[in-house]
Amino acid sequence: METLNKKRVYQIVSALIIFLDIILALIAYPHLPDRVPQHWNMAGEIDGWSSAFQGAFLMPAIMIVLFIMFFFLPKIDPKKKNYSLMDKTYWFLAMAMVIYFCLIHLGSLGIALGYLGDMPGSVTIGIGLLFIILGNYFGKIKPNYFVGIKTPWTLASEDVWNKTHRMAGPYWVGGGLAVAAGGFLPHPWSTIVTIGALSIAVVVPTAYSYLLYRKSNETAE
């Protein structure tokens, strides 16, 4: 029952965040300039712009689609039975994604309206925080096709999945900390740190899952 309650709380909080973001977009839209910042490069510089309408409502639309997808994905996953074992974790991560996109959207509107200056490093710091959150919850993620380290070897063996995610958690937390710290560095060092940290966080667990799977097969033979 506790898991069910927390799951509902995360769903409700996510829905409320999306609703409030839409309200803020409706309020901001009449006051937006013709161009709204929409994309930032690795140096934290604006390198993409959109119309006022797109800047106000594209991100809320993306958040709505993501929120609906989080309900739908467990129904089509071949490993759907495992979602009941990680409901709380799954929906907490969904809520974290919604919060991240909402903050990016609010930052974009704030810059367009003149309330905020440029956000050098802010997007990078946000990505780092997401990696830290994911890394902390890796040990609780059960085998599935949509969340976690989904290599052919982790999906083929629950034991490989569990060991890989337990090993990968500290790498993702460490990588996230490095990326977040890199957000405070000047370009190009911020880009170098970000790419290096994320590469290690992805490549090492992937290679580990392969080696672990091969070793388990050799032992079985």
From TrEMBL:
<feature type="domain" description="DUF1648">
    <location>
        <begin position="16"/>
        <end position="64"/>
    </location>
</feature>
<feature type="transmembrane region" description="Helical">
    <location>
        <begin position="192"/>
        <end position="213"/>
    </location>
</feature>
<keyword id="KW-0472">Membrane</keyword>
<dbReference type="InterPro" id="IPR026272">
    <property type="entry name" value="SdpI"/>
</dbReference>
<feature type="transmembrane region" description="Helical">
    <location>
        <begin position="52"/>
        <end position="73"/>
    </location>
</feature>
<dbReference type="GO" id="GO:0009636">
    <property type="term" value="P:response to toxic substance"/>
</dbReference>
<feature type="transmembrane region" description="Helical">
    <location>
        <begin position="169"/>
        <end position="186"/>
    </location>
</feature>
<dbReference type="InterPro" id="IPR025962">
    <property type="entry name" value="SdpI/YhfL"/>
</dbReference>
<feature type="transmembrane region" description="Helical">
    <location>
        <begin position="93"/>
        <end position="116"/>
    </location>
</feature>
<feature type="transmembrane region" description="Helical">
    <location>
        <begin position="12"/>
        <end position="32"/>
    </location>
</feature>
<dbReference type="Pfam" id="PF13630">
    <property type="entry name" value="SdpI"/>
</dbReference>
<feature type="transmembrane region" description="Helical">
    <location>
        <begin position="122"/>
        <end position="139"/>
    </location>
</feature>
<keyword id="KW-1133">Transmembrane helix</keyword>
<dbReference type="Pfam" id="PF07853">
    <property type="entry name" value="DUF1648"/>
</dbReference>
<dbReference type="InterPro" id="IPR012867">
    <property type="entry name" value="DUF1648"/>
</dbReference>
<keyword id="KW-0812">Transmembrane</keyword>
<protein>
    <recommendedName>
        <fullName>DUF1648 domain-containing protein</fullName>
    </recommendedName>
</protein>
